[in-house]
Amino acid sequence: MKLQPVVPFEPVLASCLPSGSEWIAQIKWDGVRMLSYYDGSSLELINRRGNRRTLQYPELTVPGDYCRADSFILDGEVIALSGGKPSFHEVMRRDSLKNGAAIKAAMPQVPVLYMIFDMLYCNGLWLLDQPLSRRQQFLNEMLLPHPHVQNVPSYANPEELFTAARNGGLEGIVCKDITSTYTAGGKDKRWLKRKVISDVTAVAGGVTYRDGIVNALLFGLYDDGGRLHYIGHAGAGKMTAADWRNLTARAEMLKVPQMPFTAVPGRSKDAVWIQPELVFKLHFLEWNPSGTMRQPVIQALVELPPLSCRLDQKA
Q1: Minimal CA–CA distance to 23: which of 153, 129, 178?
Q2: Domain definitions of the chain by residue range
Q3: 198-314 is a CATH 3.40.50.2300 domain
Q4: In the prediction, which pLDDT does 2 show?
Q5: Among candidate residues 166, 167, 168, 157, the one with its CA nearest the CA of residue 195
Q6: Staple partner for 195: which of 142, 172, 203, 225, CB 3.0–4.6 Å?
Q7: CATH class of 10-195
Q8: 180-198 pLDDT, tens digit each
Q9: E-assigned strands of 123-273?
Q10: Bridge partner residues of 33 (DSSP)
Q11: Which residues 6+ apart lie within 8 Å of 96 measured at CB?
């Protein structure tokens, strides 16, 4: 692939919504950040971590079906729906597959949508230094109707969209300054995310059992010194019986005698400590004053390095 991967621009977490004519708002999708690269001859899908995902989403690999540009880089989110709402658990059923036959079988069971919100490169021209308003013009002109691709709509009133997201049980919204350029690898207040549902990626440092099967995990986040701080336990979520059996087998191989957390968790009775290697995405209501999650719900096991689970997610 001739086009080099771009580290995507990220929003920062905001406690209040911005106001002013320079701001637009978009729905925050509970999916997998994905950039598509087409150099005129071949297309690649690459996620936020720089991992290729072209194999996992065959329905997105014919560039001419959804974009009229001769070459492009598009930025967006791959999502899957459950009950009419984006479900991280569902999209991970596709994203985690590695076998071509399994992927083909899963396509009708877990259909995906590519929600595109930015265009970084078009017909040989880099757009990173163009304002968002101009990049959106390019996107509107170049995207074609497609059953698995949508142009993310923008709204002028963040307050109204946030209310709609909350009423609809969606994850939240992202507010963007329409004058903002695209800073690859950047993260600043020109893009702001306001969450209805809080989420975190955390590493498991312990498990508990019921009838010989893991039924809950104890989670932690790392500080700058590499110390693992306990943030709560969870057993509820989207995990299936087969998921718990597989997790039990993996936990058996990861058992360690020494507790990996900096302090003894309140939920340490009957806990079995494991090497902190398994990373999960969790939803929760809010942070308790104690620094633990309130009502955490497991969404999915994710392929992320444990040390990426950092305390700055709480900022």
Answers
A1: 178
A2: 10-195, 198-314
A3: no
A4: 79
A5: 166
A6: 172
A7: alpha beta
A8: 999 999 999 999 999 898 8
A9: 125-126, 149-151, 172-177, 187-195, 198-210, 213-222, 228-234, 272-273
A10: 77
A11: 301, 303
